[in-house]
């Protein structure tokens, strides 16, 4: 019994001593210890450096606590990468030690937090852009033998070339997951770039030939998602890409200088099979909705932002080409008055573009076309848009605009042609042509120079010709007008309400400084001819013409004037006072 009592007493004393030691350790563990740098175990700093690749070059204070989990906190810490890729500072660095490794006599960390870090990533002055910046950042992480979970909170990251800051990421809240040497880099979080809050999620392989990769980027301006595989040796990524934006111009302005050509398009939704390298992005099996119209084809983007070049072919069942012109954003003067559209030649040709478009049907304003082929070709110092062919109202049409820079702005060349166009069919969509019918063929070729549309129109030179066969001119009955002039009977039909059938209408005009001079213009019908000459001011949109209606069977001749705005000019024949008295001059075109 005495032996048993002795054992019980010793057990009670051991329990009391153990509880006391535990309480002491708990008190010590819960109490952070402020130590000078010279008192911090070298293994602590060495462990942080080994796991992050960053050398701790300065700190104000170190705090160590052992419970509930071993942790180290460094305040006002300065960090630098011995290889010169990354450097910076943080208000606080927190490192959480692994308990099992600590029990085994080793110091290792499974998580490191940087609070309010300010980090610099050094890039070359001639870096190609975002791809090089990304390679620089992930390359730093990829070379680590092992990396704990890294958490950046309320930080900023600057891409810097020497003393020049190329871009800054603010409000950085990102988690980089723990990984081994050959495991992919996985990070997710949010940041603010160029004033836009942005969510990011990245899976980036550092080894393997067909390793899975994924990127998701989302902001108010655009969303981008890529999922596929990456060859780390060839630096080639293949996969499915999705892109969407409500304003392509604003989205491109966010990631680089705003290209003027992007103002032609607003909403874009795109899916494609992509191959991405450092030098280019190739998109196959593209399915895109451009402002609601569906297009399919292939695209290729070469070069780095902002000096990219776009090429490709697209096809669609239907597309509103006129919308592109309406979205060209003409200049607005003070008071809200819309002025002449500036050509902004440098803005339109900032990037190379070679796009070919094939459409089953298209619209340009109210006009409708079928089987259309068009091309947009832009090079530095050259802008060319061409309607290579299009079926139009029983005939065909083609057009081309070419602009090159000169001291006064831009030298603009315009070409337009139609073949066998049925004017009666066209009048259903273009009421301005309602007075004419027949089959039209013709062409024009004009040159102009200026810094805006008004200046170009005011300087146009060139020539135009038009032939209309087997048609009618509605609103004026030339045969009745001749009979009225020969012998004005009281019961004669009103020539103002009739129509004139004609065999041919031939118009030839020369342009000089924005004014068309009509020459060799003649309309020939059964029993009459009309000869017309004068001017058409393209800038003022004003007609000042005179002519004569003549009978082919008698000597009757009726001079007349046509004056007024385009599609509203007044036709005034000169016969006698009795003929002129019944009413005002008749608008020739409405």
Q: What is the rounded distance between the termini?
A: 129 Å
For the sheet with most strands, the description reads:
32 strands, mixed
Number of strands: 34
Gyration radius (Cα, Å) is: 39 Å
- Report the helical percentage: 10-25%
Rounded average pLDDT: 85
Low-confidence parts, pLDDT < 50 over ≥5 residues? Answer: 27-40, 331-338, 577-586
Structural class: alpha+beta
Q: Work out the oligomeric state of the chains in this entry.
A: single chain
- Beta-sheet strand percentage? over 45%
Name the shape in a single word: elongated
Q: Specify the number of helices.
A: 11
Put the structure in a nutshell.
The chain is built from eleven helices and 34 strands.
Structural summary, described in words:
The strands form 2 sheets. The chain has a 32-stranded mixed beta sheet that branches. It has a two-stranded antiparallel sheet with strand order 8-11. It is elongated and about 145 Å long. Among the domains are: 246-392, no CATH class; 462-587. The model is unreliable at 27-40, 331-338 and 577-586 (pLDDT under 50). By secondary structure, the protein is α+β, with helices and mostly antiparallel strands. It contains 11 helices and 34 strands. 17% of the residues lie in helices and 54% in strands.
């Amino acid at each position: 019994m005495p032996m048993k009592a002795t054992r019980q007493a010793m057990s009670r004393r051991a329990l009391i001593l153990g509880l006391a030691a535990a309480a002491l350790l708990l008190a010590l563990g819960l109490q952070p210890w402020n130590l000078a740098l010279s008192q911090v175990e070298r293994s602590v700093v060495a462990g942080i450096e080994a796991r992050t690749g960053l050398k701790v070059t300065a700190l104000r204070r170190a705090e160590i606590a052992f419970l509930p989990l071993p942790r180290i906190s460094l305040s006002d810490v300065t960090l630098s990468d011995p290889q010169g890729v990354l450097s910076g500072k943080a208000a606080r660095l927190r490192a959480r030690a692994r308990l099992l490794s600590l029990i085994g006599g080793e110091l290792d960390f499974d998580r490191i937090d940087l609070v309010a870090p300010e980090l610099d990533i050094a890039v070359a002055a001639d870096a190609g852009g975002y791809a090089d910046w990304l390679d620089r950042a992930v390359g730093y992480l990829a070379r680590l033998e092992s990396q704990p979970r890294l958490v950046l909170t309320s930080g900023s990251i600057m891409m810097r070339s020497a003393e020049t800051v190329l871009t800054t990421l603010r409000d950085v809240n990102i988690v980089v997951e723990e990984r081994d040497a050959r495991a992919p880099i996985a990070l997710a979080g949010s940041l603010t770039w160029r004033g836009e809050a942005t969510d990011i999620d990245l899976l980036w392989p550092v080894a393997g030939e067909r390793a899975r990769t994924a990127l998701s980027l989302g902001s108010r301006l655009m969303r981008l998602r890529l999922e596929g595989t990456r060859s780390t040796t060839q630096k080639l990524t293949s996969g499915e890409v999705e892109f969407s934006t409500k304003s392509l111009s604003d989205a491109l302005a966010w990631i680089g200088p705003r290209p003027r050509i992007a103002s032609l398009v607003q909403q874009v939704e795109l899916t494609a099979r992509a191959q991405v390298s450092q030098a280019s992005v190739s998109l196959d099996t593209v399915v895109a909705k451009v402002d609601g119209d569906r297009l399919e084809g292939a695209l290729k983007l070469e070069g780095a932002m902002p000096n990219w070049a776009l090429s490709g072919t697209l096809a669609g069942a239907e597309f509103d080409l006129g919308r592109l012109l309406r979205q060209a954003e003409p200049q607005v003067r003070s008071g809200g008055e819309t002025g002449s559209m500036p050509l902004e030649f440098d803005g339109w040709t900032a990037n190379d573009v070679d796009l070919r478009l094939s459409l089953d049907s298209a619209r340009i304003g109210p006009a409708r076309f079928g089987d259309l082929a068009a091309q947009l070709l832009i090079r530095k110092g050259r802008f060319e848009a061409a309607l290579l062919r299009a079926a139009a109202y029983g005939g065909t049409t083609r057009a081309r605009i070419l602009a090159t820079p000169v001291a006064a702005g831009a030298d603009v060349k315009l070409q337009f042609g139609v073949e066998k166009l049925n004017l009666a069919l066209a009048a259903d969509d273009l009421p301005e042509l309602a007075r004419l019918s027949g089959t039209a063929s013709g062409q024009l070729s004009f040159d102009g120079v200026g810094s805006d549309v008004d200046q170009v129109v005011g300087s146009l030179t060139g020539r135009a010709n038009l032939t209309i066969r087997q048609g009618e001119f509605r609103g004026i009955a030339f045969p009745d007008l001749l009979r009225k002039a020969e012998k004005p009977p009281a019961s004669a039909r009103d020539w103002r309400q009739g129509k004139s059938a004609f065999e041919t209408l031939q118009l030839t005009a020369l342009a000089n400084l924005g004014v068309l001079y009509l020459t060799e213009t003649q309309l020939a019908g059964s029993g009459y001819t009309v000869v017309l000459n004068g001017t058409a001011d393209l800038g003022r949109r004003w007609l000042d013409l005179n002519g004569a209606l003549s009978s082919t069977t008698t000597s009757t001749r009726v001079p007349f004037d046509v004056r007024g705005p385009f599609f509203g000019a007044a036709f005034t024949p000169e016969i006698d006072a009795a003929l002129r008295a019944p009413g005002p001059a008749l608008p020739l075109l409405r």
